[in-house]
Write a structure and sequence with these properties.
With 332 residues, this protein is of the alpha/beta class. The protein contains 16 helices and eleven strands.
């Protein structure tokens, strides 16, 4: 009975904390309710997010405000073609110690923060993009043969502009696969535009209240992994990932016709972890089929590689995944 009470207490605490976080962010961020939830889910799952949207939709404001509410350190890196890896990770410089002797000292780069906004990541060269790989996967960077641990929790929120591709370097599939979620920012509605005008042309609001801190985020991260998932629900997630591959069996005709490569095993890990986190946010102690479906698009859309026929006919990864969700039954 004590174990059941503890689980219920965790779900109540996580749900209440997220509601407070969402309400506090709502003071400065207009709309993006689903985006806020998905970014928070990625954070408590230990993943990273790729944000795609046109300029001016409030990506930087959202990320900076999230860091403020969570009492986490924040840094922003503007990716440009002349950006070097050392500009991200840091470099070794010659300096004087307390005794006046010349010593080599490591100066930390902007990647040493809890929340790192990699703005327009596809504008930097592949060599610079790859500087984030070790940081994202290992939560450390190696400079001068020495490894340096990053802050914990650590999350990279990388943005890219989908409409201006001239002079950019598209991320390779292996690096895209390392992102936990790919999130699409939508243009605000008429009512939301009015609220944005009110907020940005009025006196600045009071500072945001701190809702959580690094220790609390790490504790929630441990709770997420302890959320139970029934075997039929796990099998449903497995079958969704398998159905994203072209198997020529006719079960999901769109996947068979338009998909070159389906989701990697990282996609399955993202589905299950994100579904566990979402079950906590909704106040339930176990994962449901609906939890799996709700995180399917952000968790798998960037892991589906389409063929040339799909590009010619305007078929997107979202359309394929919607067909997969319709074609896969919850229970066999």
């Amino acid at each position: 009975m004590e174990g059941l009470d503890e689980v219920r207490g965790r779900t109540v605490a996580v749900r209440r904390a997220f509601e407070e976080l969402r309400d506090e962010l709502g003071r400065v961020v207009v709309g993006h309710e689903a985006l806020i939830e998905q970014v928070f889910v990625a954070l408590v799952c230990g993943g990273h997010c790729l944000l795609e949207g046109v300029p001016g939709l409030g990506k930087t404001l959202l990320v900076r405000s999230l860091a403020e509410v969570l009492n986490l350190t924040f840094s922003r890196i503007q990716f440009t073609p002349d950006l070097m890896p050392a500009d991200i990770t840091g470099t070794i410089v010659l300096t004087d110690d307390a005794a006046g002797k010349k010593v080599f000292d490591f100066q930390r780069g902007p990647v040493f923060a809890h929340i790192v906004l990699a703005d327009e990541i596809n504008r930097a060269t592949p060599k610079t993009q790859s500087a984030l790989l070790e940081a994202m996967q290992e939560q450390s960077v190696t400079v001068g043969g020495r490894s340096h641990r990053l802050e914990s929790p650590f999350i990279v929120l990388a943005t890219q502009n989908p409409i201006e591709m001239e002079g950019t370097y598209p991320l390779p599939e292996a690096q895209i696969d390392r992102f936990f979620f790919k999130l699409l920012l939508q243009y605000p509605s008429r009512e939301e535009l009015g609220r944005i005008a009110d907020l940005t042309t009025a006196p600045p609001p009071p500072p945001l209240r701190k809702v959580l801190d690094a220790e609390a985020v790490l504790e929630i991260r441990d709770w997420v992994r302890e959320v139970p998932i029934a075997e039929p629900v796990k099998d449903y997630a497995v079958r969704l990932v398998m159905a994203s591959h072209p198997r020529k069996d006719g079960r999901v005709s769109l996947a068979d016709r338009y998909v070159l490569y389906g989701s990697s095993p990282r996609g399955l890990q993202s589905l299950i972890l994100a579904a566990k986190a979402r079950s906590l946010l909704t106040g339930r102690p176990n994962v449901s089929f609906q939890d799996i479906r709700s995180v399917m698009l952000p968790g798998l859309r960037h892991r589906i590689i389409l063929n040339l026929e799909a590009d010619a006919e305007g078929i997107t990864a979202e359309k394929v995944l919607e067909a997969v969700a319709e074609g896969v039954a919850e229970i066999l």
